[in-house]
């Protein structure tokens, strides 16, 4: 029986989402097949390592006090670390580097690919150079210059951090009345030197996301694209992602043609390989007529009950429990 450590939390703005993903994992993982412990990294980098034999509520656990370095050392006794982390520290190569240095096998992409994909701007340039996909017109600015840059532009524009996920601090700026509140939100979560992307706002688009699964022998399972229709927002924002029934998610993605669906499933695998991803990834797109715009690739996509990869896997007959087993059994 494999000894599995599920790692979650961390000093990230996506801490809460990481706990939601991990709660779904521990509610569905096969306890008859694996010996399970959870390493919960709190936002102060103190840790709790807890063995579990059935689903438990993470939010009921008491604060741990194990230093991160000591927790990493303890994880050496496990066969595989199953990553339920998201965002900075957990998805940008930092945690992966710690695990690499300690020779601990883990699910998902390595530190290099994680770092590259977290850099939305530079990874998108690489994708554009190697595919026929389009990119939204983009300007990269430092946070300290964001406000002044936005006052110079024709609105609306789309604004988001270059290195973050879960649509945290992502906005459609339609007029300057909301500029102060948007700027304040960025300053709450980011430093002045952080890079912010200002992109053209693409209207009349179909939002599409598509994942892929990579087996240990480096063959792939293509997943069907999923169409996202937010019910009360201009795009697939934080609320639309994590609030039940806040968006309509369609498989098959009927807003685009069958040919486009097939192209996106294939190019998602191509992007996964191009960016050096491992095991699984999810790429996001906008489709306008015949044009497919590439947005970004996620190396540790959300695994909550409303997340997209589990829905796509289910559409081809892979249950949530089997998907988790796939991650474990295909980790090298």
Oligomeric grouping of the chains: single chain
How would you describe the shape? globular
Beta percentage is 25-35%
Number of helices: 12
Taking all residues together, what is the mean pLDDT? Answer: 93
What is the succession of H and E elements? EHEEEHEHHHHEHEEHEEEEHEHEEHH
Low-confidence stretches: none
- End-to-end Cα distance: 16 Å
Q: Largest sheet at a glance?
A: 6 strands, antiparallel
Helix- and strand-based class? Answer: alpha+beta
Share of helix among residues? 25-40%
State Rg: 19 Å
Count of DSSP E strands?
15
Topology (elements, then pairings):
Layout: E1 2-9, H1 15-28, E2 34-41, E3 46-52, E4 66-67, H2 68-75, E5 80-83, H3 87-90, H4 94-101, H5 111-118, H6 120-130, E6 138-142, H7 146-150, E7 157-161, E8 171-173, H8 179-189, E9 195-200, E10 206-214, E11 220-222, E12 226-230, H9 238-242, E13 247-250, H10 258-274, E14 280-288, E15 291-298, H11 308-315, H12 320-329
Parallel strand pairs: 1-2, 1-5
Antiparallel strand pairs: 2-3, 3-4, 6-9, 7-8, 7-9, 10-11, 10-12, 10-14, 12-13, 14-15
What does this protein look like?
33% of the residues lie in helices and 26% in strands. The chain has 332 residues and is α+β, with helices and mostly antiparallel strands. The strands form three sheets. Strands 10, 11, 12, 13, 14 and 15 form a six-stranded antiparallel sheet that branches. It has a five-stranded mixed sheet with strand order 4-3-2-1-5. It has a four-stranded antiparallel sheet with strand order 6-9-7-8. The relative contact order is 0.15.
């Amino acid at each position: 029986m494999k000894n599995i450590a599920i790692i979650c939390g961390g000093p990230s703005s996506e801490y809460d989402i990481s706990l939601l993903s991990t709660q779904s994992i521990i509610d569905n993982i096969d306890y008859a097949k694996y010996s399970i412990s959870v390493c919960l990294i709190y936002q102060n980098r103190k840790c709790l390592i807890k063995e579990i034999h059935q689903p438990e509520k993470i939010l009921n656990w008491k604060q741990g006090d194990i230093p991160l370095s000591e927790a990493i050392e303890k994880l050496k006794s496990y066969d595989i670390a199953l990553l339920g982390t998201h965002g900075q520290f957990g998805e940008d190569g930092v945690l992966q580097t710690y695990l690499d240095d300690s020779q601990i096998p883990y699910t998902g992409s390595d530190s290099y690919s994680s770092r590259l994909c977290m850099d939305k701007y530079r990874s998108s340039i690489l994708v554009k150079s190697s595919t026929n996909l389009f990119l939204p017109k983009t300007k990269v600015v430092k946070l300290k210059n964001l406000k002044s840059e936005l006052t110079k532009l024709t609105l609306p524009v789309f604004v988001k951090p270059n290195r973050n996920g879960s649509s945290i601090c992502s906005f459609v700026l339609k007029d300057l009345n909301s500029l102060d509140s948007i700027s304040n939100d960025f300053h709450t979560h980011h430093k002045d030197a952080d890079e912010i992307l200002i992109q053209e706002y693409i209207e009349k688009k179909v939002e599409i996301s598509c994942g892929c699964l990579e087996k240990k022998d480096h063959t792939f399972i293509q997943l069907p694209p999923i169409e996202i229709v937010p019910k009360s927002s201009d795009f697939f924002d934080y609320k639309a992602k994590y609030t039940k029934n806040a968006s309509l998610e369609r498989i098959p993605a009927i807003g685009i043609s069958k040919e486009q669906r097939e192209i996106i499933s294939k190019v998602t695998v191509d992007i996964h390989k191009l960016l050096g991803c491992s095991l699984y990834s999810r790429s996001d797109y906008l489709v306008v007529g015949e044009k497919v715009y590439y947005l970004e690739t996620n190396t540790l996509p959300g695994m909550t009950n409303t997340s997209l990869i589990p829905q796509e896997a289910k559409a081809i007959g892979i249950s949530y429990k089997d998907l988790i087993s796939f991650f474990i059994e295909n980790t090298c």
